[in-house]
């Protein structure tokens, strides 16, 4: 069975790069009927925080990337890591090193001065016929992995292709510090082995860790997973992704009014493609996704494309679900949503004209508040020529059936009787009802309001217009 994992370090929020890694790992497991494991690599006790852990969990939940196992926390697995280190020491694949940090710093400085690659020189590495010095008193040793000295470590990366690294380029990695705490690369290896991970899908910033991890896995006699290293995501200016490009917490996309499926759809297209398909559901994505179509080149983040995709998903979304998402946004503004007009009906009318949930909340808000159109809009549209037309329309409006078709017929009748074009009536009505100049058709808009509310807004706003400053 295919087993993938997402293993974030809780030193910050879940950003778009991590979310894409999680998405690809999740989708690959779903595509092949496997298991997706969530693992929190929280061994950096200085930088890891409970708030960051919760931010990651919240982001995964909002995106809908449900894990099959976990979350597992490395800080809860310390006895297991110590157990494996003891086994490696007994087997001779690891050894104690008493070299102090200041000694290592001096050695590396000397190597740099000589134009050599700075690295540990193996002075405490046991070798046949080699006599080691006496361990210094009062010094707690680190534990180093006994890396092979000959040959190469190689793997066929499922994104980047064949990668080979000479073992002579790798020194003996510290796998446990002097205080006994295990290091990152070692914990990853033990976790991947114990959890039966078959495919490691992660960012290409981990490529340099891979040869060391493979060597440790082989020393443990463990199967080596297949690796797929995803290229980095750049901003639309070609620079490293930063907050101004969109490298923010995925929960900020929730705050900004994006749908999770739109964010996932967009992330899926960052470095992966399925022909010319741009808009798709996560069910379709899981059916299509494989690692063969991931490009090894860097992907570029484009906020305009994300906005367009979000608008497309809004149009396809059920108005009832959108109403449930917009309602708490209105509540946060102190807007009480009444039974009439129907919030779902408002959203159904407007959802093809907006690009995010906050814009939907903006247009829905005007139906439930004590609206006061801006004076400059009143001055622009409630001209002396428009007022008689509005009076005639309002008087007849009380008598028509309260349906869009009947209201549309009345509008056409009024403009024809007064010999004016449609905007002469439609624009003042828009402003009086909503305080906006851009809305769906006036007849459909007005039919959403209770008749009494519509008439009150027309009458009250006209009274205000009588004392409003006029444009010249």
Automatic annotation (TrEMBL):
GO terms for cellular component: cytosol. A motif ('HIGH' region) lies at residues 8-18. Its EC number is 6.1.1.17. A motif ('KMSKS' region) lies at residues 240-244. Belongs to the class-I aminoacyl-tRNA synthetase family. Glutamate--tRNA ligase type 1 subfamily. Catalyzes the attachment of glutamate to tRNA(Glu) in a two-step reaction: glutamate is first activated by ATP to form Glu-AMP and then transferred to the acceptor end of tRNA(Glu). Monomer. This is Glutamate--tRNA ligase. It comes from Candidatus Accumulibacter adjunctus. The gene is gltX.
